[in-house]
Amino acid sequence: MPGETCGRALICALVIALVAVDQANAVMSMEQIQKTAATIRNTCAGKVSADIDVVLGIQKGEYPDDPKLKCYTLCVMKTMRSFKNGRVDDGMMTKQVDMMMPADLAGFLKESIGVCASEPPTGDDCETTFNFVKCMYRTDSEHFFFP
C-alpha cells in the first residue's frame, strides 16, 4: 500500500535521524525539530484526513471534539513510537526528548510527560492520546510542543 510505504519510510527516516543525533551526542537544532515535526504532521494529517488548520490549532490549545484530530494524535505518537499496547510510553518519550530537544526545553517537557502519562487509558487509543496531548498543554502551555 502506498500509505504504508510512506509510513515505513517516515519511521526509517526518524530512526536514522535519532541514531545520527545519538551518535553525535548532541540534540537537534530547533530548525531540524520543526522540519521533522512538519513531516510527521503532514503525513499523519493526510493519513487520517485531518484538517491541517485544526491540527495546527493544537499548538494554540485548541482541542475541538473532532475524531480525526484525536486519531491524528495517535498517528503522531505511534510514528514517534511513544504509544504502544494502549498506553503512552513515557520511557520512550523521555528518551526521545533527551536525544532531540535542547536541554532548556527538555526538562519542562519531561515534567509534563511525567504528569500526563499517569492518566489512565480510556479504552480508545485515539481518545487516550488526545487526552495526553491536552494534558501536556494544560500542564505547561509555555513549553508545549507537539507535531
UniProtKB/TrEMBL annotation:
<keyword id="KW-0732">Signal</keyword>
<dbReference type="InterPro" id="IPR006170">
    <property type="entry name" value="PBP/GOBP"/>
</dbReference>
<dbReference type="GO" id="GO:0035275">
    <property type="term" value="F:dibutyl phthalate binding"/>
</dbReference>
<dbReference type="GO" id="GO:0042048">
    <property type="term" value="P:olfactory behavior"/>
</dbReference>
<dbReference type="Pfam" id="PF01395">
    <property type="entry name" value="PBP_GOBP"/>
</dbReference>
<feature type="signal peptide">
    <location>
        <begin position="1"/>
        <end position="26"/>
    </location>
</feature>
<dbReference type="InterPro" id="IPR036728">
    <property type="entry name" value="PBP_GOBP_sf"/>
</dbReference>
<dbReference type="GO" id="GO:0005576">
    <property type="term" value="C:extracellular region"/>
</dbReference>
<dbReference type="GO" id="GO:0007608">
    <property type="term" value="P:sensory perception of smell"/>
</dbReference>
<protein>
    <submittedName>
        <fullName>General odorant-binding protein 72</fullName>
    </submittedName>
</protein>
<dbReference type="GO" id="GO:0005549">
    <property type="term" value="F:odorant binding"/>
</dbReference>
